[in-house]
């Protein structure tokens, strides 16, 4: 971590991809910013958006407004990274994938003795996730792990949850509620929790061993969506048919506008 980053956790620059601000960032910079914010006990919002998340932010006003307020929005999917490079010559050699970013942050947190808190998914998943993270990163301290209630929290429930997080001694909160619920939750609880919140979605299921990740070669060639579709065709076919089409059409229009 550089001195400048440690002092301020200054967010990296962002560029609009189909109208949605995406950070020009790599794993090291993103993790450095989160650790710096944790050391200062300051609110800091991070999410990783693939095509689905970008389209959610483009087409749903509340999600779009919330994403504008995030400190870092990483290019989680290869198509989003490629779009940044195409439109802005960003020079990004890899995406910043939520599950991998989670591990990078946990590794850095372990070396600096910053405990983490896990919120989301089911009780079975967060318990398995906590055990898996500590097995993989023995020095990591998991200060708490709570499942989602799978509904919006009432004001008193939000206050109680925030108090439990603060009382746990955690310095970083990972949220696994799925897009857009996790981003809306993080924004709504930004000040009441008062710590870095990192939205990582399916990372909870992947690291807990409840779902398989795509083979690395498919991830590298922007085919992760195809693997996930093969795993959950009924749930994902409609999503991908719509969101991929919206993204590609909007990207083509943005590219045409830049080159005309």
TrEMBL record:
Protein's UniProt name: WecB/TagA/CpsF family glycosyltransferase
InterPro entries membership: WecG_TagA_CpsF (IPR004629)
NCBIfam families per UniProt: wecG_tagA_cpsF
Coiled coil residues, start to end: none
Single GO MF descriptor: hexosyltransferase activity
Organism: Paracoccus liaowanqingii
Alphabetic keyword roster: Glycosyltransferase, Plasmid, Transferase
């Amino acid at each position: 971590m550089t001195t400048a980053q440690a002092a301020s956790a200054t967010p990296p620059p962002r560029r609009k991809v189909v109208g949605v601000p995406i950070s020009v960032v790599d794993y090291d910079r993103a993790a450095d910013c989160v650790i710096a914010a944790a050391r200062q006990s300051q609110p800091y919002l991070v999410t990783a958006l693939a095509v689905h998340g970008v389209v959610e932010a483009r087409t749903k006003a509340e999600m779009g407004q919330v994403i504008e307020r995030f400190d870092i929005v990483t290019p989680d999917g290869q198509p989003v990274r490629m779009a940044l490079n195409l439109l802005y010559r960003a020079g990004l050699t890899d995406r910043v994938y939520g599950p991998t970013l989670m591990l990078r942050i946990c590794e850095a947190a372990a070396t600096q003795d910053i405990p983490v808190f896990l919120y989301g998914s089911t009780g079975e998943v967060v318990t398995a996730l906590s055990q898996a993270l500590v097995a993989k990163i023995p020095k990591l301290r998991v200060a708490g792990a709570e499942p989602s209630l799978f509904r919006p929290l009432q004001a008193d429930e939000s206050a109680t949850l925030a108090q439990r997080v603060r009382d746990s001694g955690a310095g970083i909160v990972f949220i696994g509620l799925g897009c857009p619920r996790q981003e809306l939750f993080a924004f709504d609880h930004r000040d009441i929790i008062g710590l870095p919140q990192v939205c990582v979605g399916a990372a909870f299921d992947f690291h807990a061993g409840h779902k398989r990740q795509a083979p690395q070669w498919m991830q590298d060639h922007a085919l992760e969506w195809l693997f996930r579709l093969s795993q959950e065709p009924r749930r994902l076919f409609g999503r991908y048919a719509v969101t991929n089409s919206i993204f590609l059409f909007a990207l083509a229009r943005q590219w045409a506008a830049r080159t005309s």
